[in-house]
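STRUCTURE REQUEST FORM
Protein name: Sugar fermentation stimulation protein homolog
Source organism: Pseudovibrio ascidiaceicola
Requested output: structure tokens
Priority: standard
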Amino acid sequence: MRFDVPLVTGRLIKRYKRFLADVTLDDGGAEITAHCANSGSMMGLKDPGIKVWLTPNDDPKRKLKYSWEMLEIDGAMVGINTSRPNGLVEEAIEAGRIPELVGYEKLRREVKYGKNSRIDILLESEGDKRTYVEVKNVTLARENGIAEFPDAVTARGAKHLDELADMVREGHRSAMVFLIQRDDCDALVLARDIDPKYGEAFDAAVKAGVEVYAIGCRLDANEIIADRAIEVRC
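Status: completed
Returned output:
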């Protein structure tokens, strides 16, 4: 996924009210407020002074003219824009980088299913062959090389796991894909201490037959590519 426009760099002043981040731009030193699409805790990723990359937007209808895309911490690049993961996983599936999810004739996104929910990606083929794919963005890493999910309590995430299990019980395939938007991790674990109920829902979903995959990203100022399998240790 290449960025449509060149990114702008700066230094984080603070992230607040979940969706806002104040940044000092490197070019000229102006202080601006950027939109932060990530509603999670962003644990370990919001220290003042860290280097950040922003997407500029000149749409006159937009109040905030920048969106926070990435950051660098301890030498690692981390993608925090949660509007990107579904597209990145779609690209990875179409490029054959998740072999278990290839061979389908149609891929659709944001399809209604379950109990008033929308599945991130629905894979379909003739004969009512369907695989429901839920995508989660992963940015937390408290140990070197180990990515963790979630970084905050997520009742919504547990609900999604329950609905994936329901699809398996109805005779379809379901898969949870964790997108590791970091370039410094080679394994994924659950942060059960942060959200024990999510861990319980995850275990129940796996027992019901929900498949689990993780894919890591290569990130730079020009593009993000989901390009490598990550070991799942959940």
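Reviewer notes: The mean pLDDT is 96. The CA atoms of residues 19 and 43 lie 15 Å apart.
Form closed.
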